[in-house]
Amino acid sequence: EVDIQHAHSLCTDSAGRIYLTYTSNSVGATTHAVARFSPDGGQCEILGQSTADPLAEGTPHGIRHSVEDGVEYLYHANNGMMTKSTIDGDVIWSNPRPLVWPGMPYAPTDCLVIPGDDRLFVADGYGSSFVHVADRRDGSYTGTSWGGKGNTASTAEPTRFDVSLNAL
Which residue has the higher pLDDT, 50 or 118? Predict the structure, then answer.
């Protein structure tokens, strides 16, 4: 039985298995975990259940599936770090610290992996409100970010997406 609270994101792998990120009362109120369901939803397996596992840190948010050189991976955005793992939950790399400026709030909520591209776009939704670009192979920051918190009180500047995606 899985005690799911605050489910956030879903993705599927090449075999049609379903991955769900969530927090769990049974593991810990701030524990991030990933449930992997069979394609029909009839069987469930937990990845990242141990609190010593990087998949079990932070608050669950985005999860993305990617096939790179014939190998399947998952990218996890969990409100304090980005993690790349195998589809079985074995961690390839993890970035528990901000990708960018020291002291800048960093709480990634989602990411985007583009097939055939080494860039990983990280949405820092609860942190700086920037989009950061990392190298998907090792998680290192590429030096590119854009966005920032806008002024919601101003109709002239509700957001601050100053850079065009074409410039990347």
Answer: 118
Residue in the block written with tokens 């609860």: 126
Ranges assigned E (strand) in the chain = 5-12, 18-24, 28-37, 44-47, 63-68, 71-77, 82-86, 91-95, 110-113, 119-123, 130-135, 141-147
What's the pLDDT at 163?
46
pLDDT of residue 164: 44
Tell me the three-class secondary structure of 97-139, residue by residue.
Answer: CCCCCCCCCCCCCEEEECCCCCEEEEECCCCCCEEEEEECCCC
CB-count burial class (<10 Å; 0-12, 13-18, 19+) for 93: middle
Question: How high is the pLDDT of residue 31?
Answer: 57
Higher pLDDT, 59 or 156: 59
Torsional class of 14: left (φ above 0), alpha (ψ -120 to 50), beta (otherwise)? alpha
User: pTM of the entire structure?
Assistant: 0.82
